[in-house]
Every structure is written in structure tokens, then in C-alpha cells.
Amino acid sequence: MLSKNIVNFLGCDSEYKNAEIVLYGAPFDSTVSFRPGTRFAPQAIRNDSYGLETYSPYQDKDLSDINVFDSGDLELPTGDTQNVLKTIEKRTEIIFEDNKIPFLIGGEHLVTLGSVRAAIKKYKSLNIIHLDAHTDLREDYLGVKLSHACVIRRCWELTGDNRIYQFGIRSGDKSEFEWAKQGHTYLKRFCLEGLDTTIEKLKGEPIYLTVDLDVLDTSYFPGTGTPEPGGVSFLELMNAVIEICSKLRIIGCDVTELCPIYDQSGVSTAIACKIIREMLLALCKTEGDNNG
Q: In the prediction, which pLDDT does 288 show?
């Protein structure tokens, strides 16, 4: 049984035993390749979530009608990447053991690996949907294999070929794109085109969804450590996560790479909050919900 956090994401104040979804933060950014600061995202997201309403007019659903438990941020040994990933993996395993959906808030994108390590133990045929600006398929970054630039390559080592679907990708080393082309991952450059086909293909399969918020164009979302102009719009991303979460069997998910200190306007954090709200609502099937 996990303890309730003092400051919860808006409306996520269910008791643990009743929760369908469990939020937990991973304030970690020790392997970032450019600008640090994503460790501050989980708390910023919780605080700024109170600028939203619990009701979503996009889905006609309300957070007050679903059961989500916020267990707060993990205490992570920032200088020890291996132990950080082990800590995330252990928390995720606890949530899986209690038959709930783990929802991780980063932090940098490497935190996904800890969650996926736990997921693959329970779901051997796990598939991953990856929304991002970057391939994250490097074998190593400056000789380091545990980097946010390598996280999807490390996940591939767990899933194998034909189980990772990447969308919105517009940045990476040439060798990463060539490696993906060899059939290791399905990679869609620049946009979310083909997502509907992927959703149809993967219905009924166990899916882990990882959303790196820099998939968004920087004009919408400047608050990230590795900004890449040319991405998708807020509405495109929101509609995509709603479709994925409502129509597929999502067994776990995460949202990463908000760096709130680089957008003092607060708009980037507000976007992160709204994406999380829509994902939570789409994941939980309420009475009268015909999705899924």
C-alpha cells in the first residue's frame, strides 16, 4: 500500500485501494545531452494543474468521476543512474502487482527504461508507442549507454524487433534512422501520420505509451531541454493521446521532458498538465463511455 502525496495532481486524490491509475514522479535529469532542468517538472506539473478544471470539454469527462492515486515523487539518488532506474522499476512493479496502471511523470526520458523493465516482466509481448522529436536509438552517447539519447534503443533490447512504433521523429544521428529502417522499429518522420493504422493493428495487445513532450513544435512548447522546431501542434498531440489511450490496452505510460525553467510564461507546463489530464480521462472508462 502506497502513501498519498501531500500535493496531488488536480483531482487525483483517490485512495490507493480504489485507484485504477497511480501517478508517480521521477525528478531526474542527470544524463541529458543539452539543457538540464526536467527534474523540476513533476512538482511544477502538480502545482500548475490547479490552473485547470477537472472537466474536459474535449472528452466530456471529469477527473472527479475517476479514481487516480498520486503517490508523489520518488526519492532518487541523482548521481547513480543504475539505482535511479532500479527505484523506478521497483515502484512500477508494486503498481503492477496491485493490478493498476502506472503513470510516470518525468524527468528526462531515460526514466522510461525503469518503467519498461517492470512492464516487460509482466507483459512478455509488450509493444511500445513512442511520441518524440528524437529517435533515442543511439547505441551510446559519448560512450554512455544509459542516456536519454539511448532510451528507446535500451527498450528495444527488451522488446526485440517489430514492437516499437515511433511518431513525430525529426532529429537524430543518420545511423539511428538507418538502424530503424533495417526493421528494428517502425519510425514515422515529422508527423503522426499512420497512427490510426497502428492503433488498429495493436488492438488487444499490451501497450506502453511514452510521450516525450518535445514532439510538440517549439512555438507551442518552448519549455524543454532539447527543443526541435517543426513538431506537431497541441491539438494534434492531444487528439493522438486520447485515441491511443481510449482505444488500446494501455498497461503503463509516461510523460517526460518538460523543463519548466525555460518557459517562464508557464504555457509549457500548462500544456503538460492538459496532456496528462486528457490521458488520465481517456485511460479510465467511465459509465456510458463507448470508447475502447
A: 47
Q: Is the peptide bond before 11 cis (omega within 30 degrees of 0)?
A: no
Domain holding 147: CATH number?
A: 3.40.800.10
Provide the 10 A C-beta neighbour count for residue 201.
Answer: 11
Q: Is residue 230 part of a domain?
A: yes
The residue type of 18 is: N
List of the chain residues with pLDDT < 50: 287-288, 290-292
Cell numbers that stand for 245 in this block = 489511450
Q: What is the 3-state secondary structure (H, E, C) of the chain?
A: CCCCCCCCCCCCECCHHHCCEEEEEECCCCCCCCCCCHHHHHHHHHHHHHHCCCEECCCCEEHHHCCEEEEEECCCCCCCHHHHHHHHHHHHHHHHHCCCEEEEEECCCCHHHHHHHHHHHHCCCCEEEEECCECCCCCCECCECCCCCCHHHHHHHHHCCCCEEEEEECECCHHHHHHHHHHHCEEEECCCCCHHHHHHHHCCCEEEEEEEHHHECCCCCCCCCCCCCCCECHHHHHHHHHHHHHHCEEEEEEEECCCHHHCCCCHHHHHHHHHHHHHHHHHCCCCCCCCC
- CB contact at 8 A, 249 and 119: no
> Max CA-CA distance within the chain?
52
Overall number of domains in the chain:
1
Does 291 reside within a domain?
A: no
* pLDDT on residue 292: 40
Q: Does a structural domain hold residue 202?
A: yes
Let me know if residue 209 belongs to a domain.
Answer: yes
